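Example record used in the benchmark description.
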Amino acid sequence: MPFFVQNPKNSTFLDFKPSHSTPLGLATFFWKNTQLNHSQYAETPKVDLSDLPLNDVLSQLFGPLTLIETYNLLRACQKNENLGPHINWPDYFKSHNRFWSEKVSTLFDQFDNCPQEFLCWCNDKKLENKDLLPLLALKTEDHWVEFQILAPCWQEQNLSRSDGRMILDLVVDLILMGKKADELFPQNLKSWTGQLQSIRNPMTAQRDDNYELGQWPQFVKVKKQRQGDVLTQMMEITFLNKEDLQSKLKRLIDRSQGQ
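Model output (structure tokens):
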């Protein structure tokens, strides 16, 4: 049962604070002589929870966490000899609808190499395991040197979640191809994705330039989409009736045949 205590002597401190406030911040909680949370006030009740399972205590105290927060909590617990041996991470993950595996463990090891700015961006955008799997491809010190130079760009450029995921995939691919960070820095936020795609796929990038949207007739709207090295175009045609549609389709066919 939890019970009130005086300030424990020689207590340690869990070096972790979630980005959201916890509902239990009105008290200071201890487990095995380790203070678990930051209280909101200088003088608060001190409660010892050592009789409860640590998994349950952490889940109730911090609530749902993002992937990066979970990583930070795991590392903080591992550094604390009072806590590390007493938490079951597979069960903790399962209780939060996540799955612990060797791949997750390896991904967390990769996070150890990531600059804090990049992890902050990942946390802000609530990225999950699958979003960050490209990091597993960075195997050597040289790979990490180049990535660490570029990593602050995600936060500095305030990339959206979708843009950031795409750019991560491109940057890792290019680093594995031997490209250096100074070749990959964003020259312009709006064109960084296109810039990286041009470096990765120079032949198709040149071919894409032959299909500028302005070359199409006014009754056609075209949206370009790329998947890897394949360019697709979605076409929308404005027409009045069946005869008008047939006429415009013929113009497009003649155009494609160079007539």
